[in-house]
């Protein structure tokens, strides 16, 4: 019996140590994602005017981006005047501190039409992440009062290769205010990094916000154009140590079709809706495990806090979606979710 007791206590000790190591590992990984080095910020700024009618410095947005020196330390504000800019735009990682300033999301639009099944210059299919009309790899990107659109038509249920992103954000510390994102399947690729979307309009049909970003959507309008069924958010968190996730705060959900509000793209997918209004467009069950993997229901974090409207009942009814109290919801309600106190302006949030 004494040997059995000794073995039992050894097993308990090992279990506690492994849990402690996992906690330390998660803390280490979370800290690594925060980039706590001192950031001085841009020094000065310069305005570049883009005008489709020829009244500015450049006719195209990409030409304006190309004119900016690599590793710039100034804030470059691209004043993009009213008009439709039919082009594909890429902001490389070597060009931080760029602002796209439009004349209003109804007036300034950057649009392209690539789909995942389309062929690129190398003859290979583009695949989803390379379809975006605008792709930003750089840090400290800002967009205000401008729209991004992928004009590829919405796919019918079961059609493959029709993913068509309007915007992909892969840089860290990006801020969007008063922007529009228009597409169908996979409209907004919230790929990686910390992002803050405020008072934006996001339209699509299937997984029209997706990726593994760490992002807050504050007072945004999420509008479905799904014909029969669709889904809003697909979040791709793969580890309990990752600080990523989507927090929707004070939003409204409208449109057509029956929607899943969130899908478990990753095993540890994390999505929270708080203070959000839902029209009667939510599918029974509210949430989806992505690939019929019942085990995900034990590892995802799907949360709801003080949501309302005729569709809110289904959002709250799933047994594996948590009805949060204030203590559990609080980390997802403020800009601190994206470490915003370190990089957002006092009026930005």
UniProtKB/TrEMBL annotation:
Pathway: Glycan metabolism; pectin degradation; 2-dehydro-3-deoxy-D-gluconate from pectin: step 1/5. It is an enzyme of class 3 (hydrolase). Its EC number is 3.1.1.11. Belongs to the pectinesterase family. It comes from Dendrobium catenatum. The keyword Signal applies. It is found in: Secreted, Cell wall. The active site is at residue 207. One of its GO terms (molecular function) is pectinesterase activity. InterPro entries: Pectin_lyas_fold, Pectin_lyase_fold/virulence, Pectinesterase_Asp_AS, Pectinesterase_cat. Pfam families: Pectinesterase (PF01095). Residues 48-340 form the Pectinesterase catalytic domain. GO terms for biological process: cell wall modification; pectin catabolic process. It catalyses: [(1->4)-alpha-D-galacturonosyl methyl ester](n) + n H2O = [(1->4)-alpha-D-galacturonosyl](n) + n methanol + n H(+). Keywords: Aspartyl esterase, Cell wall, Hydrolase, Secreted, Signal. Residues 1-23 form the signal peptide. The keyword Signal applies. This is Pectinesterase. PROSITE patterns: PECTINESTERASE_2.
